[in-house]
Write a sequence for this structure.
């Protein structure tokens, strides 16, 4: 501990604390430009200079650690005049175009000059000028080099946090430009974090360009609706129109960072294509109708009992999902309720719920990342959960830690990983078993590319291990086997006295919350076991095909586009007499419905989301629902006849039934949310697994990798997932995100491309037994051989058409297009 | 004694009447507004706002919204947009520029706040009309040059003519015929 005197005030801080942090702790504000808490120290802007007693020269406080007995002055005349001179030098070249600059009003340079700048300047030379017109560097990023003050925050965040290293500095001295390679168009993640950290208006958002001044905006903190990392951000709206999304350095697990989806994916809310009125099917055609007519029609026609079912999407709030399961269970009297149609079956999901211990309390990702070994399997995390990727990258910089990534594809985080494993999709179980076997017996079998023995050694030597399980595992028909292997590994490591944390990586914002709310055929709210098992999504469709389902309520889910066998899903749905779809867009599924009800998007309603860590965060209403659409909660309440008036009232009921939410105060939820506690139902899962094991063995044959003629004809295993710029089928309606990636592609490894004589960006024919399409090829060095990837985000080539029910992972062949 | 003399000679009465008679013979102070004349205010007058253009005919307004921020009655609405056709002096122009004249109290703060001297208080003061539509001055109306040019010196009474049209009534000035009021 060191005791220092700052402006006469004594403060005791830990050794090695920066003077800047110590001064801030003591309550003195020191202006900074190049300093950013999570970035490496640069000390280039010289704004934070302070005087240390006994030293002649002023020192930068952001790179100087404290020493015991040090006397520091941050506010005396020498410091003040030096500070003013630094600003004078910056202003010598900074253009005074504040009236047209989008940063005007929240510009750090503006604030500091106003506070401590010189009021006059002796410089009469003309200012440095790189260009007259601002440069468009990407569909979302626009740059003005003239305004740059060389703090290099953008360069460092791109390198250290995002991991793209797309930016660098060109030139020397005052003529430095922080920009892309050769000042050309950026081919990057388009995350816009450079815009966020820029203290001046050098980097700007193109969609927000000249839409408003900062003081016009009604700014409301809310949660991102895309992946389950659960980033906090602030929506800025002007005249009931959302114009920008901004992250805040003070709130959320993401702090100042966001990804392209979060930062620029708000335009779908005001899309022309949004549903604005209820639609009723009359003479085979969907026609507009009134709310009263639609609601009374549903009440009249929707059946009750075992022949009814409900399928919900995990993009809805806890409150809506709770009311939805109440509607299905209490009003329609059935347990046939499930989440998205993308998962294998209820046994896989329920066993995953057990191994992930969702019934126990949430674990903060920062606690999880304290472990020495971080093992990620089953998620292309850089694309699925970009912010979790950032957090892991920053942790992995620590050389005492080991980051192990296991996935068939190579992605961005691989460059930070110590060990990368490649395997064929469907053999996740073998990877885990290999590790277990190595730890137990010192030998292992299996077709894994990469050094499993090294992984085993790392596991053996570590005290704390964190495993991240991706949603890919939930999609495997043999998912229960994978889960069983994980349970075995966990047991083995636990026996060896190690601390294991298993964290999920989900791809939908409220997947964890949805399960806790009882959107599962086997669980009631609070993950309590149901008396009579319901049907999962696949079983509902099977039953529908046989004509055993009369009415189906679909809440925001696009089954026709997402169920792995499009044809089957369409056939099955056509057999159902009465289908209600509640959604924001007219999806492929909605087109087949008898009643379509327009719901609200995330910015138009109140509620809570529970992210993958188990952190409950507030979603807040920013604008009123577009057109004649309504809050989903209102709709569900009026159909079910529930008397809830607001999301808060529902949350009070949730607190009664879901024990983990008991202590959470809905109104007091702030930027950091609140972690859920245990639901007191931890043992439920094991019983579920016992029931499931025998059924699953007969139901799902494991993927046969041995040679047979069919496999020779279709040599590639087709896996799907979200692209970095897209999420589900929602983001394709966003006209900014669609500019970043407009059409699907197929990605294969470099080895395969060489063998087939194909080159990057060439059009190829992708063919399965079910469907064929012409797509652009992307070649990635270092991916698993024999695996093809396609993003699942586009209606134009819906990837589920390649799939056939019962085959497991689809197989395709890729040919040169003639 | 003198008081008595003053009384019998009606001195006070003559004094008073002489002033009356003098004014009777001097030129009239009544401005026959709106039928024949109207008052032309000084250049410093704060009437209906104008949006100015530079010598090349480019709009000076860069839609920085400082006028709207400075406005004490919040009667100015500005929505900016990007423009690369050289309409304005920068690549930023106003998509919407609207002043709610019913709320405006003509304080001139907007003038003071403007960094490009785009918005100026003009000399038009006949703002009454039959419907509330005209209470909103949009960009087009503000950009249109006012009847009295900025250079034209004020402080005169000028000849004018009252016109009745379908849209309403208006007073059309004749700038060539001006006279000092006093």
């Amino acid at each position: 501990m060191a005791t220092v005197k700052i402006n006469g005030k004594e403060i005791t801080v830990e050794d090695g604390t920066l003077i800047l942090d110590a001064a801030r702790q003591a309550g003195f504000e020191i202006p900074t430009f190049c300093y950013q808490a999570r970035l490496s120290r640069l000390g280039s802007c010289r704004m934070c200079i302070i005087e240390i007693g006994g030293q002649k020269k002023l020192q930068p406080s952001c790179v100087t650690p404290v020493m015991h007995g040090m006397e520091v002055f941050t506010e005396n005349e020498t410091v003040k005049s030096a500070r003013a001179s630094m600003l004078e030098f910056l202003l010598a070249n900074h253009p005074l175009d504040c009236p047209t600059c989008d940063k005007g009003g929240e510009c750090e340079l503006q604030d500091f000059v106003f506070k401590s700048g010189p009021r006059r300047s002796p410089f009469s030379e003309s200012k440095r000028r790189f260009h007259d017109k601002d440069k468009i560097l990407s569909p979302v990023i626009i740059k003005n080099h003239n305004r740059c003050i060389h703090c290099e925050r953008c360069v460092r965040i791109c390198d250290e946090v995002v991991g793209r290293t797309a930016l660098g500095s060109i030139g020397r001295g005052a003529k430095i430009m922080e920009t892309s390679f050769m000042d050309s168009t950026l081919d990057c993640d388009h995350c816009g974090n450079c815009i966020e950290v820029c203290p001046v208006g050098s980097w700007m958002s193109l969609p927000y360009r000249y839409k408003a001044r900062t003081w016009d905006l009604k700014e409301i903190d809310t949660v991102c609706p895309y992946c389950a990392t659960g980033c906090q951000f602030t929506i800025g709206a002007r005249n009931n129109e959302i114009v920008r999304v901004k992250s805040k350095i003070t709130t959320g697990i993401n702090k100042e960072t966001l990804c392209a989806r979060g930062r620029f994916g708000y335009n779908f809310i005001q899309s022309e294509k949004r549903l604005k009125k209820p639609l009723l099917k009359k003479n085979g055609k969907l026609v507009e109708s009134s709310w009263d007519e639609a609601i009374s029609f549903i009440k009249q026609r929707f059946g009750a009992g075992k022949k009814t079912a409900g399928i919900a999407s995990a993009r809805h709030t806890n409150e809506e999902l709770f009311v939805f399961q109440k509607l299905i269970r209490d009003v329609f009297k059935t347990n046939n309720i499930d989440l998205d149609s993308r998962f294998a079956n209820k046994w896989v999901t329920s066993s995953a719920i057990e191994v992930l211990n969702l019934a126990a309390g949430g674990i903060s990702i920062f606690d999880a990342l304290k472990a020495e070994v971080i093992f990620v399997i089953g998620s292309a995390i850089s694309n699925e959960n970009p912010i979790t990727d950032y957090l892991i990258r920053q942790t992995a910089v620590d050389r005492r830690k080991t980051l192990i990534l296991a996935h068939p594809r190579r992605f961005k985080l691989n460059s930070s990983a110590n060990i990368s494993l490649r395997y064929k999709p469907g053999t996740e179980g073998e990877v885990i078993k290999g590790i277990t076997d190595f730890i137990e017996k010192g030998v292992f079998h299996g077709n894994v590319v990469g050094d499993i023995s090294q992984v085993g050694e790392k596991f053996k030597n570590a005290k704390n291990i964190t495993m991240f399980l991706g949603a890919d595992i939930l999609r495997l028909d043999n998912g229960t086997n994978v889960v069983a292997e994980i349970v075995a590994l966990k047991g083995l490591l636990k026996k060896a006295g190690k601390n294991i944390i298993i964290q999920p990586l989900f791809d939908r914002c409220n997947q964890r919350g949805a399960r806790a709310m009882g959107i599962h055929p086997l669980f009631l709210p609070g993950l309590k076991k149901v008396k009579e098992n319901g049907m999962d999504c696949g079983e509902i469709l099977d039953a529908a095909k046989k004509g055993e389902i009369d009415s189906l309520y679909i809440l925001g889910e696009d089954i026709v586009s997402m169920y792995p066998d499009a044809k089957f899903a369409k056939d099955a749905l056509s057999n159902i007499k009465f289908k209600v779809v509640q959604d924001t867009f007219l999806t492929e599924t909605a087109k087949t419905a008898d009643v379509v009800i327009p719901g609200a998007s995330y910015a138009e309603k109140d509620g809570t989301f529970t992210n993958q860590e188990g952190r409950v965060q507030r979603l807040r209403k920013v604008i009123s629902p577009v057109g004649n659409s309504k809050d989903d909660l209102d709709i569900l309440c009026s159909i079910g006849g529930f008397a809830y008036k607001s999301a808060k009232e529902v949350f009070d009921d949730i607190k009664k039934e879901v024990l983990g939410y008991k202590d959470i105060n809905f109104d007091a939820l702030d930027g950091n949310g609140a972690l859920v506690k245990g639901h007191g139902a931890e043992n439920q899962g094991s019983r579920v697994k016992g029931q499931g094991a025998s059924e699953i063995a007969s139901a799902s044959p494991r993927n046969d990798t041995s040679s047979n003629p069919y496999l020779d004809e279709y040599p590639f295993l087709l896996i799907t997932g979200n692209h970095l710029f897209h999420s589900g089928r929602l983001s394709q309606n966003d006209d900014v995100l669609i500019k970043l990636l407009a059409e699907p592609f197929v990605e294969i490894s470099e080895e395969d491309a060489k063998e087939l004589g194909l080159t990057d960006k060439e059009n190829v024919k992708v063919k399965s037994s079910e469907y064929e399409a012409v797509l652009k090829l992307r070649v990635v060095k270092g991916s698993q051989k024999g695996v093809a990837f396609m993003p699942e985000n586009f209606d134009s080539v819906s990837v589920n058409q390649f799939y056939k029910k019962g085959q497991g992972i689809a197989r395709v062949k890729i040919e040169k297009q003639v | 004694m003198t008081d008595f003399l003053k009384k019998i000679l009606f001195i006070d009465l003559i004094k008073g009447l002489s002033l009356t008679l003098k004014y009777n013979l001097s030129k009239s102070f009544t401005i026959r507004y709106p039928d024949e004349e109207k008052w032309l205010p000084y250049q410093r007058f704060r009437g209906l706002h104008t949006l100015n253009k530079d010598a090349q005919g480019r709009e000076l307004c860069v839609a920085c919204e400082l006028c709207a921020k400075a406005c004490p009655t919040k009667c100015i609405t500005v929505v900016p947009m990007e423009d690369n056709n050289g309409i304005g002096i920068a690549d930023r122009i106003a998509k919407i520029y609207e002043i709610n004249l019913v709320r405006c109290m003509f304080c001139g703060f907007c003038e003071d706040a403007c960094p490009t001297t785009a918005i100026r208080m003009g000399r038009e003061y006949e703002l009454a009309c039959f419907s509330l539509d005209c209470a909103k001055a949009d960009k087009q109306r503000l950009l249109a040059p006012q009847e009295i040019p900025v250079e034209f010196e004020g402080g005169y009474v000028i000849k004018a003519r009252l016109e009745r049209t379908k849209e309403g009534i208006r007073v059309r000035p004749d700038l060539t015929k001006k006279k000092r009021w006093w």
